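In this supplementary section we document a worked example of the pipeline. Step one takes a protein sequence of length 500 as its only input; no multiple sequence alignment statistics are reported here. Step two produces a three-dimensional model, which step three serialises into structure tokens for compact storage. The input and output of this example are shown verbatim.
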Amino acid sequence: MAETKGKNTGRSLLHALFSLILPGLGQIILGEIQRGIILMSSIVSMGLIFIWRIELAGRHEPNFLDAFHKSLELKPVFISLVIIGLIAIWILNALDAYLHTKKGRRGGFNIFFLVIVVFFILGWEISEINPYKMITKAPEALTPLSRVLWPWKAAIAHKMETVSARAAVLSPCGENPPGRPKEVPGKPYIYVEPTCGELSKLDKNNKIIEGTTLTVFGKNFKPNSEVNLWWIDPIGNEFRLRQRGEYVVTKTDSQGNFKIKIIMPYRLMPPSAEGKQIHHVEARQQTPTGAVVINDPLKLTISRMIETIFMGMMATIFGIFFAIPISFLAARNLMSGSWITLTIYYMTRTVLNIVRSIEPLIWALIAVVWVGLGPFAGIIALSFHSVAALGKLYSEAIESIDPGPIEAIQATGATHLQTIMYAVVPQMIPPFVSFSIYRWDINVRMSTVIGLVGGGGIGFLLVQYIRLLDYRAAGIAVWFIALTVAMLDYVSAEIRRRFV
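The serialised model returned by step three reads:
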């Protein structure tokens, strides 16, 4: 008895030693091949990923040891946790082999839980998750987020009446600087002091050297209202003045007067514009007249949303049209009569799987190259994917139908086509309708995505607004997407309730 016990202990230690030398080897020798391979591949992959992250952190170091020290300085918590985790998994792996040999049982799921934990740590670092940054940067995101959540200021507006006045500024200063503009009683009026100066310039390090400071005086504007300041250069280019990253805005007093200091801006003038040049400062004030107008973002969003809905509808119709006949070729119970039909079945299934595995976004990129930008490219992309997806769903529904009606129809001597028409099709109507409606819902949602790569629809407009940092206009598009998807969900539920 003692001799047998000693042999078992020796075997247990031997298998534990095997797993200590090569993780999972002891389990493989014991016949637990799947368990051993999982442990081995997990530890090897974690080690390789760990080495990759070390080399990435210390990529400028001459050797791996220096790279390790560098990465330890940069990410001490990550490096320490992964090393501790790997050592613990290695030891538990040997203990798992020992317990399985000695007591005929495994070490439980503790080792796999630890594997998941280490992979989570690696994923945290690879994905660059940074909760501190997320929290500290949250105030900066509040302004654009609030505009997205409540964007209706950009949807409608009042017609604006614009009044303006301008004054000339000479650059650089000369003998005869311009005088004050002539004042017309009751009309908006501005003048500047001095009436000449130097424009802002760039030094050798491309840093701004501020130009002359001007004082702008204005009167006869609407009281207690904002006034925007613009700059018009000698060749007619105009732009709103900015000071230290903010637009220059002032407010009139109760008499309609204002006074503000501005810095002459930087202007890149053509080589032909040499010598003294006359620039202009213009004060513009806009006041609402009361009439409400629909802004371009709302008009464009509505038109693009309608385009998106019809893109999804057309792609779904094309998908159904081509998927129905293909689905019968992809149904094994209908195509297993001979080796020829079975070959057609496997070929059809293979093509459907290949087409379905390529995302609509990729199909959209191909379609854009094929037919150019616009909704037609989006319809082609969605149609390809719809045919493959619906073909698979329809064929699986056909394979799960009740064989009783088929056998009954065949017993009457019906042809293959008659069997399909009278025994298969009646059973297929409910699932076909359900899958088709679901696909339309998917296509409308996907239409908003493929627009990002030029496939037309609301997505194309949305990405333009985001690139322009026009978050209010982007928010209108987001709201319309959400409302449209909600309405389509209601419509599809009603159709499904009536026909399924």
